[in-house]
Structure formats: C-alpha cells, structure tokens
Design goal:
Blueprint: E1 4-7, H1 13-22, H2 32-41, E2 45-52, E3 55-64, E4 69-76, H3 85-99, E5 105-106, H4 114-122, E6 148-157, E7 175-180, H5 185-196, H6 209-216, E8 221-228, E9 231-240, E10 246-254, H7 264-275, E11 282-288, H8 295-302, E12 305-314, H9 342-346
Parallel strand pairs: 4-5, 10-11
Antiparallel strand pairs: 1-2, 2-3, 3-4, 6-11, 6-12, 7-8, 8-9, 9-10
Length: about 350
C-alpha cells in the first residue's frame, strides 16, 4: 500500500502532534508546536506527511544546513507498524534532499535504540566514527541537572464499553458535568496545579502564558468541568484527531477536596463515554509510576488495556514549585486483581524502540 505524501499544512498541525505523541516522539521539555513553526519558517526544511487514505500514517521532518541533510520526527502511526510506511516516508525525505543538491544525510539515535538502528541500516545508513557535541541556548537546559525518569504505561480501548452510560453518584450534593469553552490560563492552572500537584504534573506548569494559551486552544481539544454544589471539583481534557477516529484522554482527575466522595469512578466512566463518538475507533490514555497508585487499576476497570511502555524524562519538579518525587524503588502501581503480574508490564513493547 502506497502513501500519499505531501508537505504539512496549517490544518494538519494537531494531527501531526497527536501522531508524534502516540509514537513517543515528544518530550516534556520541548514544545512540538514551536518545532513545527521553526521548521516551517525555514527555506531549508520541511515536514512531510504520509496519508493512508484520509488517515495520517507517517511523518518526517527533513532539512539541510547548507552542507548536510538531517532527519527528525520520523514517526509511524501505531496502527501502521510493519506496513512499510516508515520506509516510504524516508524515501520521500531522501528525494527532497536529493532534489536540492544535498550530497549526504545524517541523523542521531541513542546507542541503545537497537530497533531504530536496524531500521536505518536496512535503508543503507551506516554508523560513522564521529563524536557528537552540543550546546543549548535556552534556559530550560538546566532541566537535565535534576531530571526525573518515569515509566509510562500506554493504554487503549478499541471498542466502546458494553455498559449503560455512567450514572451520577448517589449523593446529597448537586453534581454537574458539562463541557466548557477554552479555559483561561488562570482557571486552567488552578485545575491543573490542584489536581496534579501531588502527582508531579510538571510540563504545563512550566509553560509561559503564551505557550499555555496556544496549547489550550489547539485543534481537537475539549474540556469538561465537574462541579459539586457549584464549586469546581474535577476536569476532563480530551483531544480528538482531525478525522475524529481517535481520542486521547489527555488529563483527568479530581481536586483534592473532592477525593473520597465516590466521584472518581463516575468521572472516569463519563470521560470514556464522552471520548467515544460515532466515528471513534480508538480511545487511549497513559499513566506512569508517579501517578496515583491506583490509577492503573482504575483505568483497567474502565476498560483500557496496556499496549506499550516507555521511559520518559521529566524536568526537575522543583523548577515548578513541587517537591522532589519519590525514588524509583518507592513508586509504582498498587496491587490490583486485574493486573497482579508486574513482570507483564515490563514485557510490554517499549515505544523507545521505533518499529518500521
């Protein structure tokens, strides 16, 4: 099957970033929106997109520095692994460079990323004896001084749960869940910081006002506010792809004062119901070992199934006004009857290894 390949357009940005997220190409300390803008401003770079019918299936950022060609953000949609789309989008990137007279292309990968290395070797790329040196020019360079590694578990749901719509909890309080417009940065920070403070939600704390406002207004984002007796109590943030075939449960949770009131199960079931639309084929979410110990079990009970894992690097939480997280051996998911075998989590495919 052949891809239809073309350069990125304005309306593609949200879908491109959604693919990058699903392919584990984004990191908390790097703004993908800024990378796209920077690339599109350059006369010497392009982001090429490969479409399988109407669905975005592969991307690559290609460019040259006047001497050598470079590749970044090579990603293939998880549903298209093994399709050969990685090879096709790379061939398009190579043609882009050749048409501009570039004589050689190069790329950087981690030495431990053996699957990616093997992929490029099959395309004729060879390892050269070179030392890579770098210097950062942005203040966030200091994030590495106190960086934190976390194990992320990606989970998905491929069909709508066979159950009635989530019933509101029996409560003496008035519970209302409703969609809201794009929240102000001030209100969003109130919710994000309050819900995620104990679980080291860092990335959006560190965003400046302009970046956060742009992120909140991105295409496909939806926000739902849970209110109890008129007081904000929780948040659901969804992100749909342009064709509405996939929905990510981006953020979800209760403010501390409303935990223990029987609202958690209702909120997650309601989030799943909202995520599924007439055209939806997949809903996905991720959790990590810094999340609530029972988060994994709650997602399992809601109908999500683990499909991959990865190691993610977070900025130092202290830069966001938080405390240092627990050591790796003091974290983890609470024992759960649905997923007792911790070794099974370690056997999940590692998204750090790029499959063709």
């Amino acid at each position: 099957m052949s891809l239809e390949i073309r350069p990125i357009a304005d309306e593609d940005v949200s879908d491109v970033i959604a693919l990058w997220k699903s392919a584990a190409l984004t990191v908390p300390h790097n703004d993908p929106y800024a990378d796209i803008r920077f690339c599109r401003r350059s006369p010497c770079a392009e982001i090429l997109l490969g479409f399988d019918g109407a669905r975005l299936a592969a991307t690559v950022m290609v460019g040259h520095d006047g001497h050598r060609g470079w590749y970044y953000y090579l990603g293939v949609h998880p549903e298209s692994h093994g399709s050969g789309f990685g090879r096709q989008i790379m061939e398009a990137a190579e043609s882009w460079l050749i048409e501009r007279g570039v004589g050689k292309a190069q790329l950087m990968i981690r030495p431990t990323n053996t699957k990616v290395k093997a992929f490029y070797e099959r395309l004729g790329y060879i390892e050269e004896d070179r030392l890579v040196m770098a210097k950062r020019f942005r203040p966030v360079a200091d994030w590495q001084a106190g960086r934190v590694e976390t194990t992320v578990i990606h989970m998905e749901m491929l069909r709508r749960p066979d159950r009635p719509a989530a019933p509101k909890p029996n409560s003496e309080h008035k519970v209302v869940l409703e969609r809201i417009g794009i929240p102000s940065t001030r209100f969003y920070r109130y919710l994000y910081n309050g819900i995620g403070g104990d679980w080291f939600w860092v990335s959006r704390r560190l965003m400046d006002e302009e970046t956060l406002a742009r992120t909140l207004a991105r295409n496909g984002a939806e926000y739902y506010l849970l209110a109890v007796d008129g007081e904000p109590a929780g948040l659901i943030e969804l992100e749909r792809t342009m064709d509405k075939s996939e929905t990510e449960l981006s953020y979800f949770g209760l403010l501390p004062g409303f935990i223990g009131l029987g609202l958690g199960r209702y909120l997650i079931d309601a989030a799943v119901d909202l995520a599924w639309g007439a055209e939806t084929r997949r809903v996905w979410v991720h959790t990590c070992d810094l999340d609530h110990p029972r988060a994994l079990g709650n997602y399992l009970r809601a109908g999500f199934v683990p499909f991959a894992r990865e190691t993610e690097i977070l900025p130092d939480p202290r830069e966001a006004g938080l405390t240092s997280p627990p050591a790796a051996d003091a974290r983890g998911h609470a024992p759960d009857s649905l997923f007792q075998d911790k070794a099974a989590l370690a056997k999940l495919p590692d998204l750090s290894d790029f499959p063709e």
